[in-house]
Inverse folding.
């Protein structure tokens, strides 16, 4: 079986799985609360995996992922709520929602380009502070923009997002980002992470690759924002704050900087934890920040590091272990002789 | 009110606001100069300083100056602890690890303040410690007594800092360590102690800035460190990060621009000014006004 065929098969298999879950939800086998939480999980997977492309794969530090989600959310909300604005009125219903999500992503990507270009040209930590500032500025601008409801938010969106839509988006995100990492562009990004000066010396156009990765990640953040907006049926400036950026960052760090499967796992786990710890809401962020600090102090690459969790890895580690034990035994007999 | 009077009025407002930014920017720039780290928690040190000052006045009944001094001492100790516990273990780790720890600390302080029963989510009024007086400099150009006080204290602290950095042994050590850490160590300078001292100095300046900010705006709230922290960082970049006089000039420049914009175009864009300034600076001259181009050696 060739590799591409098996990848497509895998994609289809997951798709069928997602569809089956959606059917079960529609049939009422999974209650509304759980289906909501699962949809949120899928959306956070998109957010975390795309942030991992910047922070984990490319070795840059973005703190404004929530800002890009806000851009996507507001753009798509404006499109779906005003039937003849931006997109012609012939697109209605779910078609309009899909197009709006794409446009939301593109808008976020464009803003990401504008924000990323000046800061990614430079080496160092400027991106962190620029994206942090960007997130705040977006929030303030939205607070003051009366067309989208100012501080009270933009209400009355139709609930277009269901589990299957969010799941499909997360599958597409994972597939594209994984393929990007495995391509020569992705390898260039990894080389930047490992040693930017060395990469530049070897002829890698570092700024270009950093900007490409940043724009792709912003695009997916924008689509995730759109999904979120059409799930909760409203967008407010308070839904995409710095705290959300930190949560996404924690997902990336917890899963491992550079590990896609790690991000997926951490996104699911932390979304679940947030629900389970609802009673301790006031202390949740204290816990999160302590977690972030301790992971950084004791395991700076994140829990999984750059490892991917896969069936192959499991097999490899058993093999390695067996070889190591064999060697140890041989070593003992050798020294005995 | 003529245009020139308005410009003068905004200049007066801007200078006193800018001096607060400058005090904070000094902390960013010194820490960056010495360990190449953006201390994201600096804005929260500013917030904690303001609260220590606030509680010293309201709960302990101190006067304004003792309260400010208490806040400065408290934050100096906090800065040392922060460096010792969170940043020192990561000094040789990947750059991102220290940065993320800084972000984590910032969130931690903010949420601890939020959860603390004395502080909480609501904004509190900072007491009017001195009777508010307005002085007329010229026709239609006024300055309040609080602003004068802010300016005087800020200038005094900056002169004190210049004295410490340029005339004392510890200041000499700071300059040496920021120039070349390894060479400094070979010359018998205690690098760890010097870095701790830098944190203490920067944090106490942030605390003073926090108390002055609270005095001017009349409120203290747990999120007050975020935007001023961001703006102070921009001020540090404007002047050239790592350069002490640069931070002072950058702070004043930013304060003046901000008051000018808020007078001209409404306060909505006031907070966006700093951000725009940062982007433009990064595009045009990333090393800052006073910065020199330093070649990176491998």
């Amino acid at each position: 079986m060739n590799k591409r065929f098996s990848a497509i098969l895998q994609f289809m298999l997951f798709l069928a799985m997602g569809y089956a879950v959606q059917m079960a939800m529609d049939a009422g086998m999974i209650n509304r609360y759980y289906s909501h939480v699962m949809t949120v999980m899928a959306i956070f997977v998109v957010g975390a995996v795309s942030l991992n492309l910047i922070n984990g794969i490319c070795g840059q530090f973005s703190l404004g992922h929530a800002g890009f989600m806000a851009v996507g959310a507001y753009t798509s909300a404006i499109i779906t709520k005003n039937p003849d604005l931006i997109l012609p009125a012939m697109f209605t219903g779910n078609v309009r929602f899909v197009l709006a999500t794409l446009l939301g992503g593109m808008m976020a990507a464009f803003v990401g380009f504008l924000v990323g270009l000046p800061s990614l040209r430079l080496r160092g930590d400027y991106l962190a502070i620029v994206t942090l500032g960007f997130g705040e500025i977006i929030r303030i601008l939205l607070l003051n923009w009366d067309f989208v409801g100012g501080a009270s938010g933009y209400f009355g969106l139709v609930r277009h997002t269901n589990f299957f839509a969010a799941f499909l988006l997360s599958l597409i995100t994972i597939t594209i980002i994984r393929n990007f990492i495995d391509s020569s562009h992705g390898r260039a990004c990894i080389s930047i992470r490992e040693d930017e000066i060395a990469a530049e010396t070897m002829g890698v156009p570092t700024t270009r690759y950093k900007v490409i990765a940043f724009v792709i990640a912003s695009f997916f953040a924008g689509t995730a924002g759109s999904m979120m907006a059409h799930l909760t049926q409203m967008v407010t400036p308070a839904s995409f704050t710095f705290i959300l950026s930190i949560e996404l960052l924690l997902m990336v760090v917890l899963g491992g900087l550079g590990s896609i499967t790690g991000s997926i796992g951490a996104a699911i786990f932390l979304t679940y934890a947030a629900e389970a710890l609802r009673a301790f809401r006031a202390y949740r962020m204290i816990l999160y920040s302590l977690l972030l600090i301790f992971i950084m102090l004791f395991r700076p690459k994140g829990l999984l590091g750059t490892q991917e969790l896969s069936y192959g890895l499991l097999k490899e580690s058993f093999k390695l272990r067996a070889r190591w034990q064999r060697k140890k035994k041989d070593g003992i007999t050798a020294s005995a002789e | 009110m003529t245009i020139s009077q308005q410009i003068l009025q905004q200049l007066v407002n801007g200078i006193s606001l800018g001096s607060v930014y400058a005090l904070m920017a000094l902390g960013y720039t010194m820490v960056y100069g010495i360990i190449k780290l953006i201390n994201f928690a600096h804005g929260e040190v500013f917030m904690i300083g303001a609260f220590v000052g606030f509680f010293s006045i309201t709960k302990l009944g101190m006067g304004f100056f003792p309260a400010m001094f208490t806040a400065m001492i408290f934050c100096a100790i906090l800065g040392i602890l922060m460096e010792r516990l969170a940043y020192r273990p990561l000094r040789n780790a990947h750059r991102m690890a220290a940065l993320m720890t800084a972000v984590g600390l910032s969130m931690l302080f903010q949420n601890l303040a939020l959860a603390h029963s004395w502080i909480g989510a609501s904004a509190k009024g900072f007491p009017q410690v001195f009777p508010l007086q307005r002085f007329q400099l010229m026709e239609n150009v006024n300055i309040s007594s609080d602003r004068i006080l802010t300016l005087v204290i800020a200038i005094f602290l900056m002169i004190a800092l210049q004295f410490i950095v340029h005339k004392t042994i510890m200041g000499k050590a700071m300059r040496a360590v920021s120039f070349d850490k390894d060479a400094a160590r070979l010359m018998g300078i205690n690098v760890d102690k010097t870095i701790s001292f830098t944190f203490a100095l920067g944090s106490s300046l942030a605390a003073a800035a926090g108390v002055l900010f609270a005095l001017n705006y009349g409120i203290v709230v747990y999120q007050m460190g975020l935007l001023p922290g961001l703006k102070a960082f921009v001020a540090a970049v404007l002047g050239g990060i790592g350069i002490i006089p640069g931070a002072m000039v950058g702070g004043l420049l930013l304060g003046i621009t901000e008051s000018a914009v808020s007078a001209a175009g409404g306060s909505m864009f006031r907070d966006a000014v700093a951000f725009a300034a940062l982007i433009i600076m990064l595009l045009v001259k990333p090393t800052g006004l006073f910065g020199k181009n330093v070649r990176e050696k491998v």
Summary: Chain A has a mean pLDDT of 88.
